[in-house]
Amino acid sequence: MDKLQIVLADDHTLVRQGFRKILEEQTEWEVIAEASDGRDAVRQTLDLKPHVVILDIAMPVLNGVEAARQIVRRLPGAGVLVLSMYCREIYVTQVLQAGARGYLLKDSADRELIRAVAAVSQGRSFFSPAVAKLMLDDHVRDLAGRGISDRYDTLSEREREVFQLIAEGRSNKETANLLYISLSTVETHRARIMEKLDVHSAAEIVLYAVRRGVVT
Question: Any idea where the domains of the chain sit in the sequence?
């Protein structure tokens, strides 16, 4: 079986070495390149086409958010995982809008890195538990402040199935195949979900899903 190929980018050599050691303890995984800045990470990713790209959010020349945006736009099949020191929703939002599938806090990366890489390599989302809790707490406070019920409860059973698959990063075609429904039906469900939840992009759907505990 072919190995899972990974590009690892961080401007600190010792950090890269530590992460590489953790990753390559998985015998079926291989770090095929390292980068110390965002621009080099983009270049190597486009050249090598790995399954997963791990990006530090704060890198010289080109930061992790912009590097993720360029990689996803030009190589949409790659699973992008962003590492950060910051447990703040504004950073998570920027990372998701850039198209990354995961957000992992550096202070917990030694315990969660394997789970995170496995998730994004399978097209699923991953967030450090502290990040997921922060987003859920913010969501609950927001609902309480506006005095409204959770719109998620208005979704039908099928809409909830489609919602989760979207939040996991599945395409409309993948969703249709998994649920044995037509592509046009998926598109109709997706439009209704966005209208009911008052969200306007796939990134907002992922944020909503994390806050609601549908994905982690």
Answer: 4-132, 149-212
Please say whether the beta carbons of 205 and 166 come within 8 A.
yes
Q: How far apart are CA 193 and CA 41, in angstroms?
A: 35
Secondary structure (3-state) at 33:
strand
Cβ neighbors of 139 (< 8 A, separation 6 or more) are: 208, 211, 212
In the CATH scheme, what is the code of domain 4-132?
Answer: 3.40.50.2300
Q: Which residues pair with 33 in a beta bridge?
A: 7
Tell me, yes or no, if the pTM score tops 0.85.
no
Q: What is the pLDDT of residues 176-210, one digit of tens each?
A: 998 999 999 999 999 999 999 988 888 888 888 87
Residues 25, 31 contacting (CB under 8 angstroms): no
Q: What is the DSSP letter of 3?
A: P
Domain 149-212 falls under CATH 1.25.40.10 = no
pLDDT greater than 60 at residue 95: yes
CA atoms of 87 and 55, how far apart (whole Å): 16
| Residue carrying structure tokens 């899972």 | 4
Q: Which helix (H) or strand (E) holds 127?
A: strand 126-127
